[in-house]
Please model this.
Amino acid sequence: MDLIERYLRYVEHIKRYSDKTVNTYGAVLGEFMRHAFSDREDAPTDEEMLQALTPGMIRGYEVHLMEDRGLNARTVNLHISVLSGFCRFLMKESLLTSNPARTVTRPKTAKRLPTTFRQSALESYFMDTDIFAAPPEDASPEEFIRRYRESRPKGYRENADETMQTMLSLEKNPEGFRLWLYGKRLRRALIMTLYCTGIRRAELVSLNRGDLDSGRMTMRIRGKGDKMREIPVTRSLYEEISLYLQAVEMICGKEDRDQALFVTVRGRRIYPEYVDRAVKAELGEAEGFTGRKSPHVLRHTLATELLDSGTDLYSIKELLGHSSLAATQVYTHNSIEKLRKVYQTAHPRAKNGGENGD
Model:
């Protein structure tokens, strides 16, 4: 087993990194070795790999990534970080005496603030889709469409409503309508859960029914590195999940405590790409949502709103499952930027360069 394989086994089984992260590390290390031994067709030996790990070679690889491949600074930093972690592992194995990647100057990256959704847009979305969270029943497509029309606000334009157009196309197909309605209920439940708990996409996918404690109103989450934590569940979220599970029984049969909490219309556990598509589809049809629409933006939104409401950073850290407080502190920048905009708009000394009085 060569050094790279040993390192990948280490980060997979000891560090317990995700499969996606392990694959990324393997790709980066493979690319570095191809760059370092570009004049050879055979694979380098372990000794040759160690000799290639020098500040000069790593710096040359960094220049190659920026100038030849045109990668941005953030991606280049990822490559150097992977090499640095590999070198730390080799030091731990007593194969290197120092970390050559630490002496390489990394490209500066622009500070990127977490993207968030406007609270008003989310409130509007949940209000508009409340009918899909109602207790499930065997109403006919015609009856459900009638109720949907009655729930729309004044000025509602039916022809511009994609949801209505979909329902009308399925009106004469009761079974197709029932399955579509289940999918709509599931997608809303996913967004509600992501927004109310701030959990990661992978954590959402891994939820089982037994993870929801109705007595204590908590949810057990398996986070990164298989670390377990408990988070509180609001009454509104618990009720929505309960109603969703009733719909599951109508579609997929009786419940099993070891069964996945969220399942597709075929009764199978949801998967990461399904969650991505669900968030994009639901919020893409709603008004007030611009930019990137992903599960992680809902996580950012909750964290920022909690901070704006006065929640202390340590509590937010525990809720989100961050390993260090530094990861949570990034949300303070959003609050500072919001405060700066208010200051620039309202403070008399900030408007028009301070010419509006004392």
Residues 136 and 350 are 54 Å apart (CA to CA). Residues 3-103 form a domain with the DNA polymerase; domain 1 fold (CATH 1.10.150). Strands lie at 212-213, 218-222, 228-232. The chain has two domains: 3-103, 119-341.
